[in-house]
């Protein structure tokens, strides 16, 4: 990295309509914060861009001076990819506009938008696309890495609905990428992460959804999990695509949707979203809701936007987070036993073990159509460690996550890139599998200097020999 001068900094500040934040700025510590409080980095420059021209100016400035770039959209990456210690942060948090083209069934979403910006706008047209489980999640990071959400079995992953993008490339050009202008680059954006530039606008396909869905949660004591989970497994085996479910094994969080008497108790929750006909959903879910001794059943017709905010209180910004993830096949008895055993050893009331039911539309997309790597998995598990900033036992929480991950490793059929943390290049490569060579070739074409390296990085200098 070349040494920055005061003149350099002033030149960039003059080129921006937005703000340039340096360590001398009074709001520097506030601006550099990201969702995961465990990340503490000190970038020399943060360009809070107002528009695509600002992004182009910032990228050009960094390229000319050999500064690596970290792109910050929602800032929700657990590994803190939106921050760096030695480069320029391109901060898109001011760029959150959302517009809907109802004729094309397309949402135009700026690169800094959160899902809470998107869902109300698309629902005004009775449409939606697969979005994050937490409404504070950034659209950019979720989309570029894959995009798990309540609607994925019906509508596909978010990445499957990315049909075009405005992208600022490593040479400072703003280009529109679609299946006509650059199909290979569009392929790479569909799962290849932030390796190929800064997306300033996403064009996302919309589907008829809502405004009312059948949704909510069933909560059981964790002690009942060994009987509840096999019953759940049998029900979802024949589930139509309009049913999305997420298991969650944890200590019951202190949120308003749950009675205070349950707060802190070990539970298994089944979160449900039926986006089809409500009466058909009531009939299909009846055997699940009638089983066992649920502590709570909140499944009812509700606005889709309320579902998208339902668990927001369980992952607040500023807490410290560490996680691992595994894609796996069927929910076998052995897997269920492993889940329950390790969830019973959970180390924090803020930690959780969400298990996402994949399949449906996710599994029907041909494996080579996108860079996303786990089309054949049936489930994804995210071992989610969380603790308060003032706690000094980080190692204990991290150890629980790693032990859980190792116990699930024999069942692994892949990994979800967006849920990687600090596993390193080999895990990134393994997550992409046979798509790796193709991604490296694309990286060499559009970012040969690896300017965009603060991501799950695809190194353009990766040797050709021995690639799989």
TrEMBL record:
**Cofactor(s) required for function per UniProt:** FAD
Q: Is Lipid metabolism included in the keywords of this UniProt record?
A: no
Q: Does the keyword Plastid apply?
A: no
Where do the FAD-binding PCMH-type domain residues begin and end? 39-209
Q: Which Pfam family name is an example for this entry?
A: FAD_binding_4
Keywords tagged on the record: FAD, Flavoprotein, Oxidoreductase
Entry superkingdom: Bacteria
Family, according to the entry, reads as follows:
Belongs to the oxygen-dependent FAD-linked oxidoreductase family.
Alphabetized PANTHER family for the sequence: BINDING OXIDOREDUCTASE, PUTATIVE (AFU_ORTHOLOGUE AFUA_1G17690)-RELATED (PTHR42973), FAD-BINDING PCMH-TYPE DOMAIN-CONTAINING PROTEIN (PTHR42973:SF39)
Q: What is this protein called?
A: FAD-binding protein
């Amino acid at each position: 990295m070349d040494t920055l001068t005061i003149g350099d900094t002033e030149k960039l500040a003059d080129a921006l309509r937005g703000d340039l934040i340096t360590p001398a700025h009074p709001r520097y510590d506030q601006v550099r914060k990201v969702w995961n409080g465990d990340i503490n980095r000190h970038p020399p420059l943060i360009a809070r861009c107002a528009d695509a021209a600002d992004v182009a100016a910032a990228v050009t400035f960094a390229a000319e001076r050999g500064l690596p770039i970290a792109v910050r959209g929602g800032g929700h990456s657990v590994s803190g990819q939106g921050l760096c210690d030695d480069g320029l942060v391109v901060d898109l948090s001011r760029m959150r506009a959302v517009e809907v083209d109802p004729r094309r069934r397309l949402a135009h979403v700026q690169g800094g938008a959160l899902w809470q910006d998107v869902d109300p706008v698309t629902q005004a047209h009775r449409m939606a696309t697969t979005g994050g489980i937490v409404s504070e999640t950034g659209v950019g990071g979720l989309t570029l890495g894959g995009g798990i959400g309540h609607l994925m079995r019906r509508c596909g992953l978010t990445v499957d609905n990315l049909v075009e993008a405005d992208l600022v490339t490593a040479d400072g050009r703003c280009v529109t990428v679609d299946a006509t202008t650059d199909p290979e680059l569009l392929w790479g954006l569909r799962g290849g992460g932030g390796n190929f530039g800064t997306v300033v606008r996403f064009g996302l396909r919309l589907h008829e959804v809502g405004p009312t869905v059948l949704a909510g949660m069933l909560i059981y004591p964790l002690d009942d999990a060994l009987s509840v989970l096999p019953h759940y497994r049998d029900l979802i085996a024949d589930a139509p695509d309009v049913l999305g479910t997420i298991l969650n094994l944890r200590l019951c969080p202190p949120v308003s949707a749950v009675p205070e008497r349950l707060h802190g108790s070990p539970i298994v929750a089944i979160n449900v979203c039926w986006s089809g006909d409500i009466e058909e959903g009531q009939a299909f879910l009846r055997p699940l809701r009638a089983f066992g001794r649920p502590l709570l059943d909140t499944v009812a017709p509700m606005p889709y936007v309320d579902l998208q905010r339902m668990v927001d209180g369980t992952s607040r910004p500023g807490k410290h987070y560490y996680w691992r993830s595994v894609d796996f096949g069927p929910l076998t008895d052995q897997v269920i036993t492993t889940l329950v055993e390790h969830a019973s050893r959970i180390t924090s009331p803020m930690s959780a073990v969400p298990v996402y039911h994949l399949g449906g539309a996710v599994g029907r997309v041909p494996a080579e159509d996108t860079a996303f790597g786990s089309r054949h998995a049936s489930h994804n598990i995210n071992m989610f460690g969380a603790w308060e900033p003032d706690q000094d036992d980080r190692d204990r929480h991290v150890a629980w996550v790693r032990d859980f991950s190792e116990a699930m490793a024999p069942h692994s059929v892949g990994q979800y890139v967006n849920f990687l943390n600090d596993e390193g290049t080999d895990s990134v490569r393994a997550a992409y599998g046979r798509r790796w060579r193709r991604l490296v070739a694309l990286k060499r074409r559009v970012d040969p200097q690896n300017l965009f390296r603060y991501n799950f990085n695809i190194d353009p200098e990766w040797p050709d020999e021995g690639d799989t």
